[in-house]
Amino acid sequence: MRIDALRRALPGHPFTRLDVVALTPAYRHSTAALAEAAVLVPIFSRDGEPHVLMTRRRADLRLHPGQISFPGGRIDPGDADAQAAALREAEEEIGLSPAHVEVLGRLDEALVVTSGYRLTPWVGVVPYPYPYVAHPDEVAGLVELSVADLLTPGSHQVDFRDAFGMMHEVHTFDVGGNMVWGATARILHELLTVWRTA
To answer: Can you give the residue ranges of every domain in the chain?
Structure first.
């Protein structure tokens, strides 16, 4: 798959906002104040092959310790919008200047069940090589996953789990011992689906 194909497909891709009203009453009650957050899904080319740049969170963090995720976080009052928040967080977490990101578009909002976030993913093409720096307060290191490896048969699994009276798809990717799951894996799955049909 080529990054140019994603450039053509993503700007016209219809994204879905999270329908909190459709959630069961028990779930709505427990998530009455969903926190708004945004992530950047950084795509880059290395040796002509597309890759996804991710972070590994520190093992001692209160939320999602040790997980592989995208750079991002809570939308702050000073952020102009979700895209601005995603770019700011990427700069803070991995040293990526917003000026060096070619934002292609957004994907569906995702619900982070374990921490009650409404998450907006933005996809952007980023430079490589680049002096990325993992911020030690949040990020233990960077993880580069090739799209070819993510698409390898057997790397992606889908299970179903009941949470708050609803059945949720639980996606996982296992690439070379790097386990990606939860909302991050759902976002990856949607990205690859859009890309494959481009």
So the answer is: 3-144
At residue 172, φ and ψ (nearest 5 deg) are -140, 145
DSSP string, 168-186: EEEEEEEETTEEEEHHHHH
Instruction: Report how far residue 57's alpha carbon sits from residue 64's, in angstroms, rounded to the nearest whole number.
Output: 7
Whether omega for the bond prior to residue 129 falls within 30 degrees of 0, making it cis, is yes
The CATH number that domain 3-144 falls under is 3.90.79.10
- The answer to whether the beta carbons of residues 149 and 9 sit under 8 Å apart is no
pTM of the model: 0.92
- Angstrom distances, CA of residue 126 to CA of 8, 53, 66: 16, 9, 24
pLDDT tens, the chain, 198 aa long:
999 999 999 998 999 987 666 555 555 545 456 789 999 999 999 999 999 999 999 878 776 678 999 999 999 999 999 999 999 999 999 999 999 999 999 999 988 877 778 899 999 999 999 999 999 988 999 999 999 999 999 999 999 987 656 677 889 999 999 999 989 999 999 999 999 988
